[in-house]
Amino acid sequence: MIFLFIGYQTLFILMKLKHCIESQQFSKELLFELFNLADSLRENNGELLKGKIMASLFYEPSTRTRLSFESAMLKLGGRVIGTENAKEFSSAVKGESLEDSTRVISSYSDVIVIRHDVDGSAKLCSSVSKVPVINAGDGKGQHPTQALLDVYTIYLEFGKIDGLKIAMVGDLSSGRTVRSLCYLLGKFENVEIIFVSPENLKMKDDIKDYLNRHNVKFREESDLDKILTEVDVIYMTRIQKERISFEDYEAAMGKFVINETNFNFVPKSSRIMHPLPHVEEIELPIVLENFDERVAYFRQAENGLYIRMALLVHLLGVD
Ligand code: CP
Hints:
Layout: E1 2-6, E2 9-13, H1 28-43, E3 53-58, H2 64-75, E4 79-83, H3 86-89, H4 98-105, E5 111-116, H5 121-128, E6 133-138, H6 144-158, E7 165-169, H7 176-185, E8 192-196, H8 205-213, E9 217-221, H9 224-227, E10 233-236, H10 246-252, E11 258-259, E12 271-273, E13 282-283, H11 286-291, H12 297-315
Parallel strand pairs: 3-4, 3-5, 5-6, 7-8, 7-10, 8-9, 10-12, 11-13
Antiparallel strand pairs: 1-2
Helix pairs in contact: 1-12, 2-12, 4-5, 6-7, 6-12
The structure holds phosphoric acid mono(formamide)ester (CP).
């Protein structure tokens, strides 16, 4: 943040981000600026990015992140180029380095959104790109725009983030969404986190160290049903089958499931969230998924559209 002293007045001007690579980049003030912008873009999206081009580069599969970014850009009057299977349909297949691809693509576009299977790829792109780079998920690293939509959703559902108790459930070792979410939750006051994961897929020490440094209370539990009554948010995640060994997957699969039985333990005021896609860890009938207020994950996915619109507007420097 920049402080400008003009006479007796002090103006607080939020630092514009150049790239969006990791959640630690976001201050609490910037988060609320993005929430406000997302709220207003929901009502009236205008054509703020008319004439701008977004390059959408996905080296890994995606439904929500890619399509919501592309929809966000189109709604803002911009245009989209890119590839949804860059591993096969870009010159990566001929051996071109990610740095060279980025140098070239950044001369064709105004912003690059990249998902890659290798940790640190988005950061590497940003080091050679002429235009802003957005990390849409890098291996087991981070997924900062998912975390943005997660905290935005929590804020919309509860009207606050401070003081909430949040359970993160599932594969906490290879899931990048929970890592990015921890970094953002660390910006708020009196948030408490409960990690519930199979023994072989626990939250890593770098995140625990970060939470300790930021005085965020957390603990680990192994019984999901036991904590359902005490938390405000149950953030379920999928076992990341594609990132772990078959043995680790077999040991973890089906350990923590929300089903029609334990759903009864979830207080009416609590919310079940999930970055999606969900597979066997949520087994709820369609009627509950459609109509029960506690199921927040489809609202959460929709919020991703508006927060990504806000992020694009922010990065492309439109007032
Ligand atoms: N949550 C998320 O990143 O979903 P996709 O993989 O469908 O983009």
